[in-house]
Amino acid sequence: MAIRNYILVCGGTACESSHSDQIYNALVKEAKEQGVENEVQVVRTGCFGFCEQGPIVKILPEDSFYVKVKPEDAHELIAEHIIKGREVTRLLYDKTKSAKHAQVEDIKFYQKQFRIVLRNCGFIDPENIDEYIARDGYAALEKAIFEMTPEDIINELKTAGLRGRGGAGFPTWMKWNFTKQVDNPVKYVVCNADEGDPGAYMDRSTLEGDPHSVLEAMTICGKAIGAHQGFIYIRAEYPLAIHRLEVAMKQSRDYGLLGKDILGSGFDFDIEIRLGAGAFVCGEETALLQSIEGHRGMPMPRPPFPAVKGLWGMPTVINNVETWANVPVIIHKGGEWFSKIGTADSHGTKVFALTGKICNSGLVEVPMGTTLREIVFDIGGGIAHGKKFKAVQTGGPSGGVITEANLDTPIDFGSLVRIGSMMGSGGMIVMDEDDCIVDVAKFYLNFTVDESCGKCAPCRIGGRTLYHILEKITNGNGTMEDLDKLQEIGDAMRKASLCALGQTSPNPVLSTMKYFKDEYLAHIVEKRCPSGKCKKLISFTIDPEKCKGCSLCARNCPVGAISGELRKTYHIDQSRCIKCGVCHDSCKFGAIKVN
Amino acid sequence: MLAKNENGFSKELVAYINEWKEKPGNLIMILHKVQEEQGYISRESAEKVSELLGVPLVKIWGVVTFYHFFKLTKPGEHNIQVCLGTACYLKGSEKIIEELDKQLGLKVGAVTPDGKFSLEEVRCVGCCGLAPVMTVSGEVFGKVTKAAVPGIIQKFM
What we know:
The structure holds 2 protein chains of 2 kinds.
Chain A: E1 5-10, H1 13-17, H2 20-33, E2 40-45, E3 57-60, E4 64-66, H3 74-84, H4 103-106, H5 108-111, H6 129-134, H7 139-146, H8 150-160, H9 172-181, E5 188-193, H10 202-209, H11 211-225, E6 229-234, H12 239-254, E7 270-275, H13 285-292, E8 316-320, H14 321-333, H15 335-339, E9 349-356, E10 362-367, H16 372-379, E11 389-394, E12 400-403, H17 413-418, E13 427-432, H18 437-451, H19 457-474, H20 480-496, H21 500-504, H22 507-515, H23 517-524, E14 540-542, H24 552-556, E15 562-563, E16 571-572, H25 582-586, E17 592-594
Parallel strand pairs in A: 1-2, 5-6, 5-8, 6-7, 9-13
Antiparallel strand pairs in A: 1-3, 3-4, 9-10, 11-12, 11-13, 14-17, 15-16
Helix pairs in contact in A: 2-3, 7-11, 7-14, 8-9, 8-11, 10-11, 10-12, 11-14, 18-19, 18-22, 19-20, 20-22, 22-23
Chain B: H1 11-20, H2 27-38, H3 43-53, H4 57-66, E1 78-83, H5 86-90, H6 93-104, E2 117-122, E3 134-136, E4 139-141, H7 149-154
Parallel strand pairs in B: 1-2
Antiparallel strand pairs in B: 1-3, 3-4
């Protein structure tokens, strides 16, 4: 009997953490026990992107979108949906929609998205090369090898106007062209999969959901620039992505799409994996190359650029995962097609990891030029728990905050820089009124201080000094001169640091100072933290109106700072209080106030 | 040839090192393998790698101490990681660390006296949609609240 239903189970990291592997096994088992194993195919796919609602199961051809599925739901899904043809309403995302409704098209989270990079994530089994090929996979490689000259390939990228998605936005065709022009028998192709930005996981999901797209793109690049060896530098913290890449590499070698004499053309190209070891600075290309060579990952001055003198001194093209994933589509559909998507400044799409205080956390891919408001409020569903929007941070530790006033800015490389932030690799973190902006700046500085390689003084000493000043401010000891110092040191670091890490690490401080000056002033002048986050600046008191005298707070206080009599108002001794907040969390009557 | 269990390196590990010996840029890959087998990289292991590769110890130690992923001390039987990526931080992962300290008397970077648990802060596990996140022996727990911590630890007792 022919297959009549496909059951897609998300096998991305977030859903796997919520036991989607058990759901997969349970579905396979149930299909067998209920006698329909020849009529359904259960497929483990890459990330659907809608992580907030995971684990996700989608059943085709009805396009039914089941959310927050548990392994024990497998029996009902097979018995009801597959055998009786009735959707399991209680598991549907939109429980009001009838069975015939195409759910995915209908969900607001997906409506404004446009998928190029994530085209196969959530559609195919990433560990099955045939499924990739069935969706035009390796068609671009075939075209590049048999129908195009190296010049044609580079021209196609030029027409497309693809810019590097790792953050800097450098035109990809120019990088390839520089390397191509150098006359050298050995050249390398490198994929930067060292996704170190805390709060971003676009590259991880792409590699987990569609590893072949990166392999195909690197091979095309090898053909264009005359290289025969590629390296994928990937974080050791991403074991699932590493596994899927290894499986994909083996399959494409078996199919003659990688290795010696690709497709019988006489062209050789192979790829090896190199593991990172948890150093944020290795996302910087010269540091990354040092790390592949087995050294401490310290950046080198540029020029010479890696395109001319890179890995082991040889000309090297380095692109980020997302950039690579765009390449096969551009070659297959043409640069002209790609160039029509997006804005004049930036073509194509961008993937963002939308996280923080948002209703729908997840991975979103939108055309360049989409506004932040659309991403945060339409796709993301707005701020969780009815709180007020405060800011969005883009670009991670290298970027800045964007406030309400700039939410209607169409996103592209240029526009984000003009409003004091940057595209970055795609982390997009939403903050609400409970988040203290000075504390957030301190959080990022703590990160970059920790990750500074220590090679150049502006970054090593400057970053630490900025951190200490912020600590002083959040402890209530800040002065007005500190604000000038932050600005002065930040400016110096931007100009004098050796690599992008040091040049951009003051950004979170400088941008929050620009947009939230009043909050810095509240900490410095009034010795007050408006969002109640900075412990040294807050105090807890008991509201006599609400206190029932139940003694719960007093019993929970770890330092015995709360005293009183049963059924009478309790009192906090401020001199002994360590501001741990346990009383606040334990009070059942909301009687503990944060001041 | 080396004896089988010299300095705790298994036959497979020694074979892996020999296989990679001539490849340029092998050091980090080899150190990963050592840590995978031993749980951390001890001074003795680093000396052994130095000997096997003919690379000075100073170079190896320089690399080991540069990268966060390499551990210099032996972790507990169950290593607990609490994510301090931005999304997890904003959603209160510091409270998880405080709760772990309360429950186990365990500070970041330390191991419990019985060697059962160790605790480390990590920067982004990559499941920001589940923030705040902690992992125990590789198993991921998402949307962790303070109240959920004792139950999670109990699973590994």
